[in-house]
Design a protein that fits this description.
Oligomer: single chain
Largest sheet: none
Order of helices and strands: HHH
């Protein structure tokens, strides 16, 4: 596999992961993400005080939103693992060829294989972040 093809594949993988996260954020409008919208409420509280033990509420949005979140988590892991497999196949075969000719390149080649495997870990981290946001 040529270096140019590998770089293009990794760029496409990053775009797909970013789009997956964007789809999740777009379909989860009930989440504030740390920002509060102005509601126009008066400065003086005129309503009754809240009960000491308020009922538990579901903060994950509707079931449709949660479904899109699970799909986004699955896609980010699956596509990252697929991209990592493609990258490891190219880098691993080149590393084996280089090691067969010059055995002293073993350490350097393992670094490149490890970097290719890191792509799958990035997808897994994004999935964990999405699932954590779902609650």
């Amino acid at each position: 596999m040529k270096l140019k093809e590998m770089i293009v594949g990794l760029l496409i993988l990053n775009v797909v992961i970013a789009l997956t996260i964007g789809v999740f954020i777009f379909f989860a409008p009930n989440t504030s993400y740390g920002f509060q919208a102005e509601t126009g409420t008066p400065a003086i509280e005129t309503t009754a005080p809240a009960p000491e033990n308020p009922p538990a509420t579901d903060t994950g949005g509707s079931s449709s939103d949660r479904g899109w979140g699970y799909i986004a988590a699955a896609l980010s892991t699956a596509i990252a693992a697929l991209g990592a497999g493609i990258a490891v196949s190219g880098v691993g075969s080149a590393a084996m060829g280089a090691i067969s000719e010059r055995p002293e390149l073993l350490g350097r080649s393992l670094i490149f294989v490890g970097l290719a495997e890191g792509i799958a870990i990035y997808g897994l981290i994004i999935s964990i972040m999405i699932l954590g946001k779902l609650g």
